[in-house]
Description:
By secondary structure, the chain is an alpha+beta fold. The chain is 63% helix and 11% strand. Strands 2, 3, 4, 5, 6 and 7 form a six-stranded antiparallel sheet that branches. The protein has a four-stranded antiparallel sheet with strand order 1-10-9-8. Strand 8 (587-591) and strand 9 form a beta hairpin. The radius of gyration is 27 Å and the shape is globular.
Amino acid sequence: MIVEFGHFALVLALVASLIQSVFPVWGAVRGDSRMMAMASPLAIAMFLLVLLSFFCLTWAYLTSDFSVMNVFQNSHTDKPLIFKISGVWGNHEGSILLWVLILVLFGALVAMFSKNIPNALKATALSAQAWVSAAFLAFVIFTSNPFLRINQPPLQGSDLNPMLQDIGLAIHPPLLYVGYVGFSIVFAFAVAALILGRIDAAWARWVRPWVLVSWIFLTLGIAMGSYWAYYELGWGGWWFWDPVENASFMPWLTGTALLHTAIVMEKRNALKVWTVFLAIVTFSLSLLGTFLVRSGVLTSVHAFAVDPTRGLYILTILMVFIGGSFSLFAWRAPLLKQGGIFAPVSREGALVLNNLFLTTATAIVMFGTLYPLVLEAATGTKISVGAPFFNLTFGPLMMPVLLVMPFGQLLAWKRGDLWAVTQRLVAAFVLCVIATIGLAWFYAGSGVLVIIGFGFATWAIIGSVFEIIDRMNIRRVGLAGGFNRLKGMPRTVWSTALGHLGVGLTALGIVTVSAFESETVLVMHPGDTVEKSGYHVTYDGSWDQRGPNYVERVARYTMRDGGNVVRVLEPSKRVYNASGTPMTETAIATFGFSQVYFAIGDNTDDGGLVTRLYMKPLITLIWIGCLIMSLGGFIALTDRRLRVGAPKPARKSNRHSQPAPAE
């Protein structure tokens, strides 16, 4: 009965979404407060119903109820508890249910924590959110029902894909979905603003926290997915320009641009049309990513193997929402009043310039991702667009972004003095040159392109913290006064510095590991020793052992530095009992920001073992940079103006009833 409760809750949620999609927006247009008041209770009720449904499916997994088709196809009694739970979203039906749960969660959060938003805008936004919810609830119920029963239940399940039985895949999809789906509420606010004709600085202030939350979680989700692919697939790479990787990266790029334009709109009431356009584009790219993953149009280690009829349904949703929103945008955008004017050389101008490069980079990634699919559909010709194309086109576009970031932090709003800012950045430039020379000397044999990459990355890193140093103004106020300024510095300054610092660190990690990683593939016998990047690695031997739902062969390697043991690594090769699928489990030794990466292959007839060793200098900076970017976003959220969405009304003055304080 619990499973049936879950299915029934989804049906009720669909009914609630249909009501919410009509009456609140109708009330907003007609000025009917009673209809508008329906939006918040319906949004909360819809969330509770979908949450109940999700719990029912989770219960079926925890109890190994193999009468449920979804549980039978993706679970097994021997599977560890954490993977029974993550198995709920380790498949198409369960993951789309999680997608819908996060979708309605954002609607409920807006209903509960947006008291300062005008009722008409709130009601219209929640109605727009309900349009998306209704479409995907119908998709779940009619084409992807996770609660289908089996007439004659088997005693055992088929098990979850072994590639997904990893803690990284327990964390990665929820993080990614919060980012993906979070932009739906930004989309809803944009549509509501177009319908009502209200787009101003206050609207940007209400929207920016939701942009921040979505961007933070999308950053973390992409970083977690990158690290999972790095250590779990055993290929030694951290990014493959896989179509599904690109599908999450594109909304991140436009989301970053949206975050910056929202700042300009809030501060200067400018770039209204551009901000609304990016809000629609970002969520449209999220829907495009959902289509690519679930349509069956591409083959990827990340994609769900589903039938094309489901893809056709998602394509219909995609066309309706993208086409409808852009039609509304084309109709209403010309009516928007022009906002604040600013000079090309200003902080606004720097943000606009960076956004132009970010959106151009998005277009390039989209072209490289979709062109092979379109060509195959049109002509039947299969081609592959891989890393060389993306590296040669995307990389150069990021250099101007890194170059402009430190200038943008120091330029004044409305009209800036480029020469004065350049003079203030002289010290940062000198430090950048010294750091670049140091890196080039340490990594001997650096080519011109690598040195240029070092230069841009270190410029972003040093420039990101230079605004903090500049604001301390130690020369004028002294060391003690500088630290007092540091304590009172706005949180948004810290968040900007950390965000840009994270970008610079990630860029430095990418440049270094791309240029200087080394790979050694050899057959090792017990007792053999090989030298790798100054370390002596000895293969001690291997043995077989059993896990909860697999058997594995474990190999042991001892790393020594000058005769001293510094690491003992045990990579393995597993075979899962239920499916017989082999999986490689890597072992990684971290030294500072660099790593030595071990993966094993097959045994040879003479008792040897194929061993792959990679040296990856500064690779951890890639993910550390992402964490620092996200930390900057979280600090921005603690700023009261963003946390509440709008300033609270000031308390009435009591100066007429209270005596004035003595001078």
